Amino acid sequence: MSVPVPPSDLADTVMARLTATYATSADPARAARAQAYTRNVAPYLGLPAPLRRQLSRTVLAGLPRPDETDCAAIALRCWELPEREYAYFAVDCLRRHVKRLSSDFLPVVRHLVTTVSWWDTVDALAVHVVGGLVAADPRLKTEMDAWIEDENLWVARTALLHQLRYKDATDTERLFGYCVRQSGHTDFFLRKAIGWCLREYAKTDPEAVRAFVERERGRLAPLSAREALKNL
User: Fold this and answer.
1) C-alpha to C-alpha distances, 93 to 53, 88, 106, 159, nearest whole angstrom
2) Between 20 and 30 A from 82 (CA), which of 91, 159, 213, 223?
3) Can you list the domains of the chain with their CATH numbers?
4) pLDDT tens by residue, 54-92
């Protein structure tokens, strides 16, 4: 389901500056390499990350902080542009202002997760945006319970990863339950996500993760189990 782009004067200014500023530093050779690295999910301008962040600061200089409507407009309009660096700009914006976003922003994030999907944007949105929204409003946990069952693997991956930075605040019942519910999935990105979220939680409670992997080893893919226990 598409999400309409709300009107925003600030987004109009940001997008005009952004497209003009990024385009001046395009590097076609670097763009071709980046596109190949991400399996042609999208074309690139060819901006290395440090330069892109520097240009982004120039774009935003002197502008007010965006509110939720501005964030939605900027992100959705960035996602409509073909070059991947614009999506990275949007993700950086949402990460920076996640505390200004309400639970009503979740459908916007779902649209971003399911449109031109690849790990480079999905993982940052999962950990730093969805994770922040759920932490601020625990009622969204029931939304994650639905997302983990979603037929779209990137939505399910987002549910797996949204607690990645929660540490002691991790809902372990959900973490382990989500891993079990997707343990039979054959996709590499879901199997890797299971191992990743378990490995990260092992920094907080290694014995709990070790016990879980031993208990569920028959259901977990070897990749997931190996990743989970990598640092133990």
Assistant:
1) 11, 9, 15, 21
2) 159
3) 1-101 (1.25.10.90), 137-232 (1.25.10.90)
4) 999 999 999 999 999 999 999 999 999 999 999 999 999
